[in-house]
Write a structure and sequence with these properties.
By secondary structure, this protein is α+β, with helices and mostly antiparallel strands. The chain has helices spanning 23-41, 55-63, 111-128, 148-153, and strands spanning 2-5, 14-19, 67-74, 77-88, 96-105, 133-135.
Length: 173
């Protein structure tokens, strides 16, 4: 586990950042954070996409080692999470990769500092797993809208733009 002090002093809260090994314990605490995260970055994109995570699918992916979760706990309480999906690159044999999933830190938890520590811990874990490269991303809504600069400072290159297109019922033609 990666540990850090958020402020100096004997009574400073202790921040522990590391891999979450129990999905059930993690998800029990993470669901309210996931709801806040969804409303921060997805509200306004399209009202037809509603909050409704498939926790059982995520639990299965976590159990299989596909979904890796880094949690940030301040005095034992979850204040942030970072998920990665570890997959083989089907276009480059023998090259494990990781696709960034959700990344969130409660605003009152010094979110940028906590986010940076979770990213750093994620890279350490993924390297230990043999991952060769990662695909970080950011949304254009919410507090992370400018985090591409952070990725670029780390050496990442922008390579694509994603779009949201609703094709379900009542789709705009």
């Amino acid at each position: 586990m990666f540990e850090a002090q958020l402020r100096e002093g004997a009574l400073a809260p202790k921040l522990v950042v590391g891999e979450e090994l129990s999905w059930q314990e993690f998800w029990h605490e993470a669901e309210p954070l996931a709801r806040a995260h969804f409303h921060e970055v997805d509200n306004g994109v399209d009202d037809r996409r509603t909050f409704g995570p498939r926790a059982e699918v995520m639990a299965d992916m976590h159990q299989r080692g596909i979904m890796r979760v880094i949690g940030a706990r301040l005095d034992g309480k979850l204040v942030g999470y970072f998920t990665w999906n570890v997959l083989p690159d089907i276009e480059s044999w023998g090259t494990p990769m990781a696709m960034q999933g959700a990344w969130y830190a409660k605003p009152e938890a010094k979110a940028f500092a906590v986010g940076h520590k979770m990213f750093k811990a994620s890279m350490e874990l993924l390297r230990k797993l043999g991952v060769q490269y990662v695909f970080p991303h950011h949304r254009l809504q919410g507090r992370g809208e400018a985090i591409g600069h952070y990725f670029e400072k780390l050496g990442a290159k922008p390579i694509q733009i994603s779009y949201f297109l609703w094709i379900g019922e009542q789709a705009n033609a």
